[in-house]
Amino acid sequence: MTEWESVRVELRAGGDWLPVDDNGEVWNKLTVIQTSEDDGPEVRADVEVSADGVAECREVRIRTIGAGRPVRSRDLRAVRLDGLIEKGYGLAVMQHATPSELARRHGVADDGQWVTTSTRAESSRAVRGLRSRRKRKVDDDLLREVAEIYRANVHRGPTQAVAERFDKATSTAALYVSLARQHGFLGAAIKGKAGEQ
Q1: Distance of CA 141 to CAs 91, 154, 163, Å?
Q2: Mind listing the pLDDT tens digit for each residue in 162-196?
Q3: Domain endpoint, select from 132, 162, 191
Q4: 164: helix, coil or strand?
Q5: Which of 9, 14, 88, 183 has most Cβ atoms within 10 angstroms of its Cβ?
Q6: What is the 3-class SS of 125-146, one letter each residue?
Q7: Is 161 inside any structural domain?
């Protein structure tokens, strides 16, 4: 079992989809579950993704599964919370495409597809960066600037241009763009391509 195969995610009720990049989304209430390769306990972490893309752990549970061995002190020491959150976030990011075997394995039955191994790793790096940075206040001035940068770069990677300007991960830049749309600084998105209606 690989490190990715030992982790799965469940989407918790009461959440909502947040944009990650120009064609991806992440559910903002996740339970990340890591199973043990042996008969060890299962670790469950409840994670919430804030509007500016920061994945934060709200609760951790460790429990014995079936007739497995009891939870031990070393199990607590073995929990690598940051890594678990990063992997879970990477798995939870959905790309709009056709269903795949990996999507079905994770219980996805709609038209979405779980990201590939390389994109999962990229998502993990993004969440690591988001969690390590200080939060920037998202106000009307910032959203106006986001809209200006987006429009100026609409034909050559507008979200990436926003990411570079604010020294943020693409996922955070996508959230800024989404917020700029929600607050009326940018028009509605055009399905499948950059720009605004």
Answers
A1: 33, 20, 16
A2: 888 887 777 788 888 888 988 899 888 777 677 77
A3: 132
A4: helix
A5: 88
A6: HHHHHHHHCCCCCCCHHHHHHH
A7: yes
